[in-house]
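Box 4.2: Ligand-aware structure prediction
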Amino acid sequence: MKSLRITIKMSFWPNGYRCCVFLSFDYDSSSATMWRTPLDVVSQSRGRYAPKVAIPRVLDLLDKLDIKATFFTPGWTIDNYPDSVEEIRSRGHEIGGHGYAHERMTEISYEAEESVFERMMVSMERIGVKPQGYRAPYWLVSDRTIMHLKRLGFKYSSNFMDDDMPYMLKYRGEETGLVELPVEWILDDWPQFDTERRSPAEVYEIWKPEFEGLYELGRYFCLTCHPQAIGRISRLKMLEKLLSEMQEKKDVWFATGAEIADWVKKKLT
Ligand SMILES: [Zn+2]
């Protein structure tokens, strides 16, 4: 059988990097459970594991590997754990938007969605952040969401699943001026660990070949993690192994969402 050999003629990425890794965290804390299951105090306690235990561990790992990530953070998390969010910023990571209380944008009215964006922006302003990227909770984008992102001056969205390279986002046939940093459920720790209850070894066996394939093709690998899920020590060890192996390639560009969006816009427009 012939082996598949792919040669990259010219890299899309800056400085001769062969492929790009976008490491992202959705810092939900208890924002979703506070209103979806208000009487379930144990579920809510699991959200608190993020600021209390997981975020410090994740930040130490990122420092150790010298990787900068993007933390999509609901306004509720900012308002309730401002010191934790400040720590993330002070260690050089990006804060992106993620709703206010982790709302399902496809299930709320036009007025309610507008008010969610306003509340989210007020929380961001309070800590001096002008978010450049937005990821919708549950990846539920309503028919109005893109209009709000344009109105509020966002540079990129990280929500759609139709590519494994970033691209300039068109919505209903119209240019939006936004860069799209696409995502995928298989590269999200939540369904892997929480829905499917897979072991770290099993998840590694899914993520590693996906990365190797995209690396070979010179494309883009976006990992979505939730501190309260990935922050368990066995899973974090698996993440460290995966990221270290990526770094051993020496030509992988680890960048924040804002850095990737700036580069993609420069290349494609
Ligand atoms: Zn979320």
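In the box above, the bound molecule is zinc ion. The mean pLDDT is 95.
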